[in-house]
């Protein structure tokens, strides 16, 4: 089963991602950057890390780029590397090339523009090596 953290300030987008991903495992939700970092830190502390993080870029206060940078920094400091890291899908309503480039420089694993295509999202998870987690 897939353990997922959905970080999204928009209610409708959260519900859509939950509907797509809930059949495959537990989906926790954070509505902003600081809450996401708290959830991520708690999961590491409790030794039940997230395998997937769906991270909205445009959030008030701390945006998704800053959250991803903090997550990757935490992983590095703990020696979590390669396939042991959380897979991160950046999500946004923007197709701005700068956002896309920044996301990949910050080491995201995929980038999705809203509205979500459930089949494309699940195909991306398979490409990320999470296919064995996608059993219902």
Secondary-structure blueprint:
Layout lengths: L3 E4 L3 H11 L5 E4 L2 H13 L6 E5 L7 H14 L9 E6 L4 H9 L4 E4 L4 H10 L9
Parallel strand pairs: 1-2, 1-3, 3-4, 4-5
Structure overview:
The protein is of the alpha/beta class and 136 residues long. It has a domain at 25-57 and 70-92. Helix content is 42%, strand content 17%. The chain is built from 5 helices and 5 strands, in the order E-H-E-H-E-H-E-H-E-H. It has helices spanning 11-21, 33-45, 64-77, 97-105, 118-127; strands at residues 4-7, 27-30, 52-56, 87-92, 110-113. A 5-stranded parallel sheet has the order 2-1-3-4-5, sandwiched between helices. Strand 1 (4-7), helix 1 and strand 2 form a beta-alpha-beta unit. It is globular, with a radius of gyration of 14 Å. The termini are close together. The mean pLDDT is 91.
Q: Write the element-wise H/E pattern from the N-terminal end onward.
A: EHEHEHEHEH
Number of strands: 5
Low-confidence blocks of residues = none
Mean pLDDT: 91
The best one-word shape is globular
Residues in helix, %: 40-55%
Largest sheet: 5 strands, parallel
User: What fraction of the residues are assigned to beta strands by DSSP?
Assistant: 15-25%
Q: What is the count of DSSP helices, taking H or I runs of 4+ residues?
A: 5
Distance between the termini: 8 Å
Summarize the structure.
This protein is α/β, with parallel strands linked by helices and 136 residues long. It is 42% helix and 17% strand.
């Amino acid at each position: 089963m897939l353990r997922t953290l959905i970080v999204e300030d928009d209610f409708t987008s959260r519900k859509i991602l939950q509907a797509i991903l809930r059949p495959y495992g537990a989906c926790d939700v954070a509505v902003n950057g600081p809450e996401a970092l708290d959830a991520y830190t708690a999961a590491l502390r409790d030794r039940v890390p997230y395998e997937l993080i769906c991270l909205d870029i445009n959030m008030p206060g701390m945006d998704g780029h800053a959250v991803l940078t903090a997550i990757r920094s935490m992983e590095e400091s703990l020696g979590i590397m390669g396939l042991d890291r959380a897979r991160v899908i950046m999500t946004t309503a923007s197709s701005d090339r700068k956002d896309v480039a920044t996301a990949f420089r910050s080491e995201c694993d995929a980038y999705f523009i809203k509205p979500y295509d459930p089949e494309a999202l699940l195909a991306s998870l398979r490409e990320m090596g999470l296919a064995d987690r996608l059993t219902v």
